[in-house]
Amino acid sequence: IRNIAVLTSGGDAPGMNACIRAVVRTGIYHGRNMFGVMQGYQGLIDNNINEMTARSVSNILHMGGTVLKTARCLAFKEDAGMEIAFKNLQDRHIDGLIVIGGDGTFTGAKRFGEKYGINVIGIPGTIDNDLYGSDFTLGYDTAVNTIIDAIDKIRDTADSHDRLFFIEVMGRDSGCLALRTAIASGAEAVLLPEKETSLKQLITKLKSGVTTKKSSSIVIVSEGNKYGGAYDIAKSVKRKFTHYDTKVTILGHLQRGGSPSGFDRILGSRLGYAAVNAIIKGESMQMVGLRGNEIKLTSLEEALHAHNYKLEDDLLEMTHVLSI
Ligand code: F6P
């Protein structure tokens, strides 16, 4: 493997820049030519590929977002799009591709690697933390801290006004962010995609808070839960439970931005470094991940196949107990 390209694809995640820096510098250290692809798979198709030096990645370690930009590219799902992408890589003699992203990114990488035999390594980068084979995905820790910071602020105003807040957090179809931030912010309840909590149970819980003299309450709503968005849920709850003045906050994309936490900077650096070492050794169709503080390889197939976050029932139960 002489020439290696790196791209970020799907939703951005804090720590991607630290990871890009590690990929580029590790490759250059080992005498490889390094290329950055702009806008994910779209840049492969558009031939938006630039050679990178150690200086191209100076002073980006601490920045949120991704300097390579990102996109969700539909054209790469088509054979014609993949063909063009491969030709553009071939023209530059690029024989290794490192992709940083989530499940959509890995699905594309796996098909591309299988079809054209190019060496592909995946790095788990998504705030959702929903890939099998890495205890943590890049960006998740920062997002948890960003969400907690926001909820703490809402808690101040909720308590001052004796209000009930429904706060919607991201996670697509994974409740990992919601459950962890519910614990860390002392939320009264959390609605998750993986576990059904009926609105009746939710109201019972909120009523018990009134009985035990809670002046305000916070409910975390994971975006993938089965009752819909936070506004819908707040409306349904209000029909049957009127004790509090009720407000809704959708945290939205602020959860994806911001300077990466120390943890994500270190994780991004470790995963980027490991990805290049793996691809140089000839590994392909693998994801580098952190498991129990060790970097391990997991096949893309497995990372995708078992991608659902397994909700820990004991943590949900704990959230319930600690918020009495
Ligand atoms: O996968 C990361 C994520 O932030 C999800 O939590 C969310 O559902 C989705 O991306 C939002 O995507 P977009 O930025 O394309 O609206």
TrEMBL record:
Cofactor: Mg(2+)
Pfam families, per the entry: PFK
Any one Gene Ontology molecular-function term assigned to this protein's record: identical protein binding
InterPro entries listed in its UniProt record: ATP_PFK (IPR022953), ATP_PFK_prok-type (IPR012003), PFKA_ATP_prok (IPR012828), Phosphofructokinase_CS (IPR015912), Phosphofructokinase_dom (IPR000023), PKF_sf (IPR035966)
Domain of life, per lineage: Bacteria
Function (record text): Catalyzes the phosphorylation of D-fructose 6-phosphate to fructose 1,6-bisphosphate by ATP, the first committing step of glycolysis.
HAMAP family membership: Phosphofructokinase_I_B1 (MF_00339)
NCBIfam families named in the record: PFKA_ATP, PRK03202.1
This protein's name: ATP-dependent 6-phosphofructokinase
Gene source species: Pedobacter cryotolerans
Organismal lineage: Bacteria, Pseudomonadati, Bacteroidota, Sphingobacteriia, Sphingobacteriales
Gene that this polypeptide is encoded by: pfkA
